[in-house]
Amino acid sequence: MKDSKLLKGTLQTIILKLLSGTDRMYGYEITQQVKQLTEGEFVLTEGALYPALHKLEAEGLLATESEIVDGRARKYYSLTAKGKEEQVAKVQDALTFVEKLQLILNAKPSIS
């Protein structure tokens, strides 16, 4: 995706949606899932992902737990009850936005 600002504006919604379909995920796993689902069109950088994860955690939408995997600490993220509610709201907002944006993008220009 050429305009990373569009992706950044929906990053929290993307994270919440991905986590709603699983018990937990770690950061790299989230980046790879986004890449796979979008056939490489969306690429999440660590510089964008981790601040978003930390913000969601600070807002009480994500819970974390750490485990040692192959001798290294790995931090897993999961939705809290509040996060599950917020996910539903954010996804609905995004779907409504996309629907209205399509109306605008598909409209025939009027000549005054």
UniProtKB/TrEMBL annotation:
Quote the protein name from its UniProt record: PadR family transcriptional regulator
State the SUPFAM superfamilies in the record: Winged helix' DNA-binding domain
Pfam families, per this entry? PadR (PF03551)
Q: Where is the Transcription regulator PadR N-terminal domain?
A: 15-86
Write out the transmembrane intervals. Answer: none
Species this chain originates from? Sphingobacterium tenebrionis
InterPro entries of this UniProt entry? Metal_resp_DNA-bind_regulator, Tscrpt_reg_PadR_N, WH-like_DNA-bd_sf, WH_DNA-bd_sf
